[in-house]
């Protein structure tokens, strides 16, 4: 056969193979039209993810204990596969795993990605099953993020509002009282100036500016000031307002007039965390989980850190994570998967809410999250009581946040295109932190036009 | 004629035997070829075919994919980062060629002229290539720190003002070019050096006897003698540098103010952060078409010079 003919045959074969493989996507989701199975005790096999990594021995052991106990409690359910990839939700592998059928039955997702997965039909509709969960009626508003058009697509298992994380040790060195942290942005600015004056390497206030984290923190600051990123109908940008301008002007002033933010840019989530854990940064926007992460993941000296309420906050960006079910799961698998979520994450006294066990294993108990249930509900009360009875950390480290955040309403991420919006908002954030002469009005106006154009193209 | 007298049936019988002989003769060669063909088919050609298909579809990998025509391309075109991404990629390619093409060639000439410590210096030049790219990139993150980084300390030593490096939209892109040049110049230098060593020494000796200095020898002997390798390297470098990703991904996240967002970085954003694999593929297809032009020139150049 001539080489040319061989190449034609090969190309044709490849095209056919491609077409054949392409058709593997054609099968509609098993769960889409399926009604709940008649027999809830039918044998079923599921897979779960987010097992703590091997480096986190204690939590990994408790997780494995829970998997075994869960299967003992529900003999008809087999947990056939447990994966420990970290981070638990990795956008780089999510779609390939979904396409290849390798995505776990029950998968972890952080809040910024929830809306997108619902919008693109990549999570199962679990509305018909959630009423079988005992604690479901006790959920607080964090559940709203997992709802669309009256349907439920997942369950939050971790939730918290934004606050201001600060280093008490640095405060003391700067002559500030760590027990009376800043309550207004003017106080933040003044405190940051004093901290930066401690000398080289000290940063009063740290902030993100790239890799979509800049836009994320712009959103958190904007919500705090009472603003919104997009209009209520989700069709227009809504941040080119005095509140949006105040966010950028405040940063610009701290960076260039006060010189209290250092010159390092933080373009990904761990970068600012590392800087905070380093012990020379005074303050950053962050939720209470930041304290635990500084301790567990970044080697920070836990007792040096506290979290207080976000200054002058009118609303708090709702952070957290939850679990969704593979859209290709069968009704029996959905039911079994929800039972796993309920057992491991939602039942007071079990799994992550087993505070007696956590205390015995020297894990931190007493931090005011996950905040999943209404305060007056049976589940809410049970979690609060168990947490208080087994607390092994200084509650004062979180007291400012708990007291200061009371009554401030949580606000979800700006819709299914949050990441695209954050990418656009990185530009004004990086501009005010890298250019002294950055024109805030122009930056907001440009970003507004870009977001409007992006939203229009999506619709 | 003898052939005319052979019966038709005999001639027909001979045809398959000729083919069989030809197949038998080349069977081993096809056997060896199979491994490469299978690898290319699964890991290069199939993904390319899938990329083309996906860029015209909308799929969530759950429901049946939907053909959407040019919608993904329109989405990408209307992206505010689209134009900056192409401009930055073109600028990066141009700057990377100016630095990353010329510097290794000059380094190779210098190394070729050296009489002592040649092996040691060759090793030193090649050393950065042996570092994992992420390590090299993160090393430069420290060098570029405006407060305590090495580069500003060196500038300070010469009483020069420090630069913002990655923190300024004016210097961020060139900072990435410096990283890229440092990481990749070892390979280029070795290839040029190998080409230089194939030049007959008699040419240089004759030129020296005729009184030609260093620059005249380079101009009239070195460059003409290495013309082919210079051209091939130029084209390969264009194709490689236009796919720049790791430097902006690790060092700048595309910022500040989109000054380092590149085409492949934008593809990554679409595919993995924006959840739009289809739009990412559409952008990838555009880049592929551009790179195909350079690849075609490369193939033409190599063919013309080998036949």
Features of the shown structure:
heterodimer, A: 459 residues, alpha/beta, D-Maltodextrin-Binding Protein, domain 2, 2 domains, four-stranded mixed β-sheet, 16 helices, 14% strand, disordered N terminus, B: 307 residues, mainly alpha, MetI-like fold, two-stranded antiparallel sheet, 75% helix, flat, transport (chain B)
In short:
The complex is a heterodimer of chains A (459) and B (307). Chain A is an alpha/beta fold.
Summarize the structure in words.
The complex is a heterodimer of chains A (459) and B (307). Chain A is an alpha/beta fold and 459 residues long. Chain A folds into 2 domains: 44-152 and 319-346, D-Maltodextrin-Binding Protein, domain 2 (3-Layer(aba) Sandwich), CATH 3.40.190.10; 163-314 and 408-458, D-Maltodextrin-Binding Protein, domain 2 (3-Layer(aba) Sandwich). Chain A is 44% helix and 14% strand. In chain A, helix 9 (269-277) packs across helix 10. Chain B is an all-alpha fold. Chain B folds into 2 domains: 2-54, no CATH class; 73-306, MetI-like (MetI-like fold, Orthogonal Bundle). Chain B has 14 helices and 2 strands, in the order H-H-E-E-H-H-H-H-H-H-H-H-H-H-H-H. Chain B starts with a helix and ends with a helix. At the A-B interface, helix 1, helix 3, helix 4, helix 15 and helix 16 of A face helix 2 and helix 13 of B.
**In order across it, which strands form the biggest sheet of chain B?**
1-2
What's the CATH first level of the largest domain in chain B? Mainly Alpha
Count of discrete domains of chain B: 2
| Alpha carbon gyration radius of chain A | 24 Å
**Which percent band covers the strand fraction of chain A?**
5-15%
Helical amount among residues of chain B, as a percent range? over 70%
- What is the overall pLDDT average of chain A? 89
Q: Spell out the CATH superfamily of the largest domain in chain B.
A: MetI-like
Distance between the termini of chain B: 37 Å
Compute the number of strand runs of chain B: 2
């Amino acid at each position: 056969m001539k080489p040319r003919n061989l190449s034609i045959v090969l190309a044709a074969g490849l095209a056919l193979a491609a077409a054949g493989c392409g058709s593997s996507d054609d099968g509609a989701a098993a769960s889409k039209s399926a009604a709940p199975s008649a027999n809830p005790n039918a044998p079923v096999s599921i897979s779960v993810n987010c097992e703590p990594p091997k480096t986190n021995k204690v939590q990994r052991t408790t997780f494995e204990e829970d998997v075994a106990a869960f299967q003992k409690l529900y003999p008809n359910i087999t947990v056939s596969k447990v994966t420990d990839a970290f981070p638990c939700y990795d956008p780089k592998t999510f779609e390939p795993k979904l396409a290849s059928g390798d995505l776990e039955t029950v998968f972890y997702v952080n809040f910024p990605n929830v809306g997108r997965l619902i919008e693109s039909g990549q999570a199962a509709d679990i509305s018909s099953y959630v009423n079988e969960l005992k604690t479901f009626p006790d959920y607080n508003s964090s559940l709203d993020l997992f709802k669309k058009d009256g349907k439920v697509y997942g369950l939050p298992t971790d939730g918290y509002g934004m606050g201001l994380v600060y280093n008490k040790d640095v405060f003391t060195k700067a002559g500030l009282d760590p027990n009376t942290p800043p309550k207004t942005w003017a106080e933040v600015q003044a405190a940051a100036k004093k901290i930066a004056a401690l000398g080289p390497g000290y940063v009063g206030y740290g902030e993100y500016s790239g890799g979509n984290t800049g836009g994320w923190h712009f959103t958190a600051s904007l919500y705090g000031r009472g603003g919104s990123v997009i209009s209520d109908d989700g069709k227009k940008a809504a941040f080119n307002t005095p509140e949006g301008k105040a966010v950028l002007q405040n940063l610009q002033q701290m960076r260039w007039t006060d010189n209290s933010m250092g010159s390092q840019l933080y373009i990904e989530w761990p970068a600012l965390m590392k800087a905070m854990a380093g012990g020379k940064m005074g303050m950053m926007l962050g939720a209470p989980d930041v304290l635990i992460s500084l301790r567990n993941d970044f080697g920070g000296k836990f007792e040096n850190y506290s979290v207080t309420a976000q200054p002058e906050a009118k609303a708090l960006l709702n952070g957290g994570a939850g679990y969704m079910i593979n859209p290709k799961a069968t009704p029996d698998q959905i039911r079994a998967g929800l039972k796993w979520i309920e057992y491991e994450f939602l039942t007071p006294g079990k799994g992550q809410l087993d505070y007696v066990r956590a205390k015995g294993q020297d894990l931190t108990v007493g931090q005011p999250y996950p905040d999943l249930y209404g305060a007056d509900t049976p589940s809410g009360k049970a979690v609060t009581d168990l947490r208080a009875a087994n607390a092994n950390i200084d509650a004062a480290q979180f007291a400012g946040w708990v007291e200061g955040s009371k009554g401030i309403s949580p606000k979800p991420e700006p819709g299914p295109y949050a990441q695209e919006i954050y990418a656009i908002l990185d530009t004004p954030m990086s501009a005010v932190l890298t250019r002294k002469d950055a024109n805030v009005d122009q930056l907001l106006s440009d970003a507004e036009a870009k977001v409007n154009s992006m939203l229009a193209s999506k619709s | 004629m003898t052939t005319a007298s052979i019966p038709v049936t005999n001639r027909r019988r001979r045809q398959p035997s000729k083919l069989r002989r030809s197949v038998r003769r080349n069977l081993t060669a096809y056997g060896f070829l199979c491994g490469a063909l299978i690898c290319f088919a699964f890991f290069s050609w199939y993904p390319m075919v899938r990329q083309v298909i996906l860029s015209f579809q909308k799929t969530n990998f759950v429901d049946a994919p939907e053909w959407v025509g040019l919608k993904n391309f329109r989405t990408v075109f209307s992206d505010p980062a689209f134009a900056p991404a192409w401009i930055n990629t073109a600028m990066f390619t141009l700057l990377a060629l100016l630095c990353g093409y010329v510097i290794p060639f000059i380094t190779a000439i210098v190394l070729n002229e050296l009489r002592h410590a040649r092996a040691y210096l060759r090793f030193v030049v090649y050393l950065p290539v042996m570092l994992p790219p992420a390590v090299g990139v993160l090393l430069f993150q420290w060098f570029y720190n405006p407060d305590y980084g090495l580069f500003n300390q060196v500038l300070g030593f010469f009483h020069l003002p420090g630069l913002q490096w990655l923190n300024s939209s004016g210097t961020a892109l060139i900072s990435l070019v410096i990283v890229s040049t440092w990481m990749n110049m070892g390979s280029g230098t070795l290839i040029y050096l190998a080409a230089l060593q194939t030049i007959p020494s008699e040419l240089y000796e004759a030129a020296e006897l005729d009184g030609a200095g260093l620059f005249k020898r380079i101009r009239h002997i070195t460059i003409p003698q290495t013309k082919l390798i210079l051209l091939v390297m130029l084209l390969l470098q264009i194709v490689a540098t236009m796919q720049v990703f790791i430097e902006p991904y690790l060092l700048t996240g595309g910022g500040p103010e989109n000054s380092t967002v590149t085409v492949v970085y934008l593809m990554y954003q679409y595919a993995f952060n924006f959840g739009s694999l289809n739009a990412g593929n559409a952008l990838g297809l555009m880049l592929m078409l551009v790179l195909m032009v350079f690849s075609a020139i490369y193939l033409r150049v190599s063919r013309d010079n080998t036949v």
